[in-house]
């Protein structure tokens, strides 16, 4: 694949943000190049999220990247809450005027976008770590990256940091220009992949004094499960039998739920963090996805926020190059941050309501149960959760007429 010296938009990172942005720009006739530090296998195998909001599905369809999603994605109309020995189902369509979510792993979204881009998309270079962004305060920034032992340069009109929380693009912005608002949580998640059928047809979010548990899925034969564990926990401290025993205790066997044990094929500890970088733009440098914001995974918002950022950004860049209209670029950060902060608040609410940190008093735990009780009994409280979980509708990306 060629290594052009020039492009209109340099995209750093081939996660969902970078790949979806490249796909949307390519379809809008905007020239771009994607530079990814890792190899294709690493990028495609990273276990991450699994819930797509309707607006994310719409954007993937608009981008011509949803064929397999439409075949294999599983539509979900609700979730189960488990607390105080009881269960309560949140029904999305009746509470949101018909909205639902889709279960389709982020790994599969990435595989679909990589395949499309390598087939007929803009240049996508793996093993191409960006070392620096130079001239970020000029109208012709230069991206310096390595590839096959050589140092290469790519000059461009815009550099988009889709390089995640630890990325390099944000560091090209002078100190003091951007402000980071952060919170870390006093617990982590043990993420588990198991060759075992899902516990139930829908996702189960379980509050328990032993700690939070989430039963999700990847297919009718593969479960994706999570257990709240202390920060710094070693996955090796969780042999298979202990995992299944703890899930049994926290989820609590119930009519219609079946915890079928099977081989654990992957397990890792995921820290919980909230973080927002403001603004998301500085001149010709713009941030999208995890490079700009992190949410604790409890609300399943990370991938969907990334998709909404790049939907807004692609339309803004298309308007800029198509009509010379820079207004959407100028409002990019404010437009995205409204949605980001709403997702941050919801993710914080779900995380702090469902997790029981060791320092929690019995009073704290009863407060959580009271909040969960309110959701179970109040249409308004349930509708608030359903609206946030299924995501605020977003204008899908519209190709220039
Ligand atoms: N040069 C090139 N690529 C880089 C560099 C660099 N200096 N630094 C990081 N990257 C790459 C990473 O290897 C990764 O593939 O940027 C990509 C960032 O991808 P993600 O971290 O997945 O971020 P994003 O694309 O915004 O997707 C957000 O991923 O972390 C989950 O929960 C999150 O679901 C959400 C989604
Ligand atoms: C997942 O399936 O990985 C998943 C689902 C819902 C969440 C978090 C993770 O809230």
What Rg do the Cα atoms give?
21 Å
Q: Which percent band covers the strand fraction? A: 25-35%
Q: Report the bound ligands by name, code or SMILES.
A: adenosine-5-diphosphoribose, P-hydroxybenzoic acid
Question: CATH first level of the domain at 6-74 and 104-183 and 273-355: which class?
Answer: Alpha Beta
Unreliable parts: none
Helical content class: 25-40%
Known CATH architecture of the domain at 6-74 and 104-183 and 273-355: 3-Layer(bba) Sandwich
Oligomer: single chain
Global mean pLDDT: 95
Strand segment tally: 20
Which structural class matches the secondary elements?
alpha+beta
CATH superfamily grouping of the domain at 6-74 and 104-183 and 273-355: FAD/NAD(P)-binding domain
The dominant shape is globular
Which fold name is given in CATH as the topology of the domain at 6-74 and 104-183 and 273-355?
FAD/NAD(P)-binding domain
Taking the alpha carbons of the first and last residues, their distance comes to 31 Å
Q: Please give the largest β-sheet.
A: 8 strands, mixed
Going across the major beta sheet, what is the strand order? 6-5-14-15-16-13-17-20
How many separate helices?
A: 12
Please, could you describe this protein's structure?
The protein is α+β, with helices and mostly antiparallel strands and 401 residues long. The protein has a domain at 6-74 and 104-183 and 273-355: FAD/NAD(P)-binding domain, CATH 3.50.50. The protein has twelve helices and 20 strands. The protein has helices spanning 16-27, 40-45, 54-62, 67-72, 92-96, 106-120, 240-251, 302-323, 327-330, 332-354, 362-377, 379-390; strands at residues 9-12, 32-35, 51-53, 74-76, 78-83, 86-91, 101-103, 124-125, 130-134, 142-147, 150-155, 158-161, 179-194, 203-206, 213-219, 222-229, 264-278, 281-282, 285-287, 293-294. The strands form four sheets. Strands 6-5-14-15-16-13-17-20 form an eight-stranded mixed sheet. The longest helix has 23 residues, at 332-354. The model has no long low-confidence stretch (mean pLDDT 95). It binds adenosine-5-diphosphoribose and P-hydroxybenzoic acid. P-hydroxybenzoic acid binds at residues 49-51, 203, 214, 216, 224, 297-300. Residues 12-18, 35-38, 43, 48-49, 106, 129-130, 162-164, 167-168, 289-290, 302-303, 306 line the site of adenosine-5-diphosphoribose.
């Amino acid at each position: 694949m060629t290594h052009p010296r020039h492009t209109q938009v340099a995209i750093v990172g081939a996660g969902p943000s970078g790949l979806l942005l490249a796909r949307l720009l390519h379809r809008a006739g905007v020239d771009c190049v994607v530079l990814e530090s890792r190899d294709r296998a690493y990028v495609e195998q990273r276990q991450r999220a699994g819930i797509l909001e309707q607006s994310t599905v719409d954007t993937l369809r608009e981008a011509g990247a949803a064929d397999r999603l439409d075949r294999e994605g599983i539509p979900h109309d609700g979730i189960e809450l488990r607390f105080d020995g009881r269960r309560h189902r949140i029904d999305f369509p009746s509470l949101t005027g018909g909205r639902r979510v889709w279960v389709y792993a982020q790994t599969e979204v990435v595989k679909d976008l990589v395949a499309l881009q390598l087939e007929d998309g803009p240049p996508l270079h793996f093993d191409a770590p960006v070392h620096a962004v130079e001239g970020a305060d000029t109208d012709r920034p230069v991206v310096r990256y390595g590839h096959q032992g050589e140092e290469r340069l790519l000059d461009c009109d815009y550099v988009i940091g889709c390089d995640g929380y630890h990325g390099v693009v944000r560091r090209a912005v002078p100190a003091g220009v951007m402000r980071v608002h952060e919170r870390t949580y006093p617990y982590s998640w043990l993420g588990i992949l198991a060759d075992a059928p899902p516990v139930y047809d829908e996702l189960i979010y379980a509050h328990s004094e032993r700690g939070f548990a989430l039963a999700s899925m990847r297919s009718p034969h593969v479960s994706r499960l999570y257990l709240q564990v202390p920060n710094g926990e070693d996955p090796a401290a969780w042999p298979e039998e202990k995992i299944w025993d703890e899930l049994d205790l926290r989820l609590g066997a119930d009519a219609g739920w079946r915890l079928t044990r099977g081989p654990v094929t992957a397990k890792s500890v995921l820290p919980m963090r909230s973080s927002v970088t403001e603004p998301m733009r500085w001149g010709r440098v713009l941030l999208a996805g995890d490079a700009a914001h992190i949410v604790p995974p409890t609300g399943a918002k990370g991938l969907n926020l990334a998709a909404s950022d790049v939907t807004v950004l692609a339309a803004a860049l298309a308007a800029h190059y198509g009509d010379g209209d820079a207004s959407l670029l100028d409002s990019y950060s404010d437009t995205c941050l409204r949605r980001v902060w709403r997702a941050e608040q919801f993710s914080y609410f779900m995380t702090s309501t469902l997790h029981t940190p060791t320092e929690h008093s019995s009073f704290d735990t009863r407060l959580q149960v009271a909040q969960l009780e309110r959701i179970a009994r109040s249409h308004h409280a349930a509708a608030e959760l359903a609206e946030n979980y299924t995501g605020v509708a977003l204008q899908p990306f519209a190709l220039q007429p």
